Amino acid sequence: MFFEVQDLTKTYIHNGHRFAAVDHLSFSLSPGEILAVAGESGSGKSTLCRLICQFARADSGHIFFHDQDTTHVPEKERKNLYHHIQMVFQHPYRSFHPRFTLEKSILAGIHNYHIPCTPEMLRHHMEEVHLTRDLIRRYPHEVSGGECQRAALLRSLVIGPELLICDEVTSALDATIRNDIAGLIRRICQHHHIACLFITHDLYLARTMADRILIMHHGRAVEEGTAEQIFLHPQQPYTKELLSSLL
User: pTM of the entire structure?
Assistant: First the structure.
């Protein structure tokens, strides 16, 4: 199995009460597949990302990548994991050092992983994400949100990941830019055969982006299927409620 989550659980305590942000969650992902994980705020989507990327530790359950258990990877081994699993964050400006140019941050990742990347290869990847050399030589505050998010995507792409995790990457952008960024991610993943876990609260975006959609509610997976199955033949009351809110 390429990527699989089995019975994953993460609980927190808030105001003296324990609650499950991720509650016995299970799903799988095939190479090159795009899976949208959708649900309202507080459904556990971002916590799931944090567990996969080792930013938080699961209470129970397992995460498998290429049949290896990566649920609790020792810190000294995480660099190898991050070589294969890259994450693009919701707020692009926060993901770059404010005193570094975009180019310096991108090149730092290449050097950190000792990746052979010629100027020609970098230029090719820049063209893929619709960026110019002039633009990436600017500082984060000197570019637009969409341009900064393209730079974040470039920084992940040059590492050569097998799995790309996109955590609400369009929610901080103007409406006119969201579809452009989502479409760009889909084309890149298809071209490079990169699997993608696309976290979003936007069901319309999930429909255009993903091969499958998983609906989360209170940390649980309540429904899963193709985009057409979810939109045309929803089975669960919560899914029907989400879809009705779009009308």
Answer: 0.93
